[in-house]
Amino acid sequence: MIYVDADACPVKEEVVRVAERHNTHVIMVADGGLRPSRHDLVRNHIVSQGADAADDWIAENITASDICVTSDIPLAKRCLEKGASAIRPNGKLFDEQNIGMALAMREVKQHIRESQQTQTYNVGFTKADRSAFLQALHALLV
Question: What is the number of other CB atoms lying within 10 angstroms of the CB of residue 140?
């Protein structure tokens, strides 16, 4: 099963495409705003609005044989702790070797934003990111 942290996920369509190829079920989890899917393999799960409601639902329901698509580093850590795989929309995998550094960098960026009262920005999402994601998700499912 593939769980998608779907609120701001740029690769929802790609997840469905790969899932169809592998006959794998997908659950899109969000606090609203999801379009109904015409695919039998896809289910939308709407959680109550609130900070981390979608993350909490995914973390409670994911199992060791599942995959989570997310940019949320704390959610990725929770999924890894349950033995599941976690992949970013740019195709980079979270794993036991890089999750600690990812969490640390997240904290550093948050500290900079708060102390300097400035905004930090993520790098834009590219066609190369989309392609890398498709390849990495396919590899996880094989």
Answer: 16
What are the distances in angstroms from CA 101 to CA 31, 69, 75? 29, 19, 15
Q: Which two tokens stand for residue 37?
A: 């899917």
* Cα 34 to Cα 7: distance, rounded to the nearest angstrom: 8
**What is the pTM assigned to this prediction?**
0.86
Q: What is the pLDDT of residues 60-103, one digit of tens each?
A: 999 999 999 999 999 999 999 999 999 999 999 999 887 877 76
Q: Report domain extents, the chain.
A: 2-95+126-141
Residues 105, 107, 110, CA angle at the centre, nearest 5°?
110
90 neighbors 133 (Cβ within 8 angstroms): yes
